[in-house]
Amino acid sequence: MENTTNLSLPKEKLERDPVKTVILASMMGTAIEFFDFYAYGTASAAYFPSVFFPQTTPLLATLLSLLTFGVAFVARPFGSFLFGHFGDRLGRKKTLVVSLLVMGVATVSIGFIPGYGSIGVWGALLLCLCRFVQGIGLGGEWSGAVLVATENAPEDKRALYGAFPEVGAPIGFFICNGLFFVLENILTPAQMQSFGWRIPFWASAVLVFIGLYVRRRLQETPLFKLAQERDNTTRSPLREVFKSNWKEIIKGTFLMGATYAMFFTLTTWSLSYATMALGFSHSEFLLLLMGAIVEFAVLIMSTSVLADKIGRKKVLMTASVLLVVFSLVFPFFLEGKHNMVGMLLFLGVGFVIMGTLYGPVGAVLPELFPTKVRYSGAGITYNLAAVVGAAVAPTITTWLIAQYGLHSAGLYMFVLAIVSVVAWALTPETKDVDYTK
Hints:
Layout: E1 5-9, E2 12-16, H1 19-46, H2 48-52, H3 58-89, H4 92-110, H5 116-119, H6 121-150, H7 158-186, H8 189-194, H9 199-215, H10 222-229, H11 237-244, H12 246-276, H13 282-310, H14 312-333, H15 340-358, H16 361-367, H17 374-389, H18 393-404, H19 411-425
Antiparallel strand pairs: 1-2
């Protein structure tokens, strides 16, 4: 067992987990959670329309499939209420273990749901149920993971530590899409449609087992233990956070909403559009996405380091303004069949902005809230942003194009980006807040 190190604070000396343990527990668990979530996103864009909705037109089947994708985002605030309550009352560690288990069971179950040909509409209903449970689990995951990281961090490295769970997102995405890429190159299209799409959901069981093992080695975070020693916890964290920090919840939701809309436009929607309208094969586009995801991970880490040096607001305000421009410009990159140069620009520029937005927010959202409601506040904010920005973003984008053409694809993201810029203008810098309170 590794020796723990000490975190010095005024009048207190607190033990924290070794850096390696913090990285593994926060990054790996989040990577597994996002592997599960992205497996659903990929399958909903490429396979679910014909597996669960073959009785409808191709466009309607795609819209219905993408709507099932949004079910989890509706569930995520409920997950943040549930896990936030226990995370602020009982501690971060136990809550994180349970959230991972809930997510894993739901994901593996999706791999066993029969299609429309076997049980009719019951397949789609079971799919929505499992997707809802997935959302409950993920609703408690992110906030717990970033608190394990940031509540173990030195004061001048909170954004860097907060980037550990954030970079789990591209890791999970890369592993998931890499598995789909391999499967699509060794199985026939008919085999993928029949059973191949189920394999990533089954494989999640192995990853969840590894994640549970890592997280059980954690101790409670030093700042939560300090709050317990100071009797600075609350029996009703949800009531407290909505009473005392409702402004922070609103601001944080709109700070993050456009980021979510961008991410699922770059991934779930673009996968569907590129393969159905632009002439890219599914495996070809997955390979492009995997390359862009590496760029995403690099930007998460580098911009988080920058945010520790110059402040969160300068970095994130700049990226938000760039997103306003990108929302209007990116449809021009996607003109023409199999436009490889345009697609590389779309993904390359998009993930530079996306990584800059997503990295430092792992520190920003927790910094908006005091320790006694931090799990609840950060989780509710993050997951409300998911509802606003991602629950219907792929579906709305698909509908806008069908009604008004390709150049309308970025309108939803544009509106959210403008709101995000306004929210940043109203939010003070959080870099130097007292994180022990």
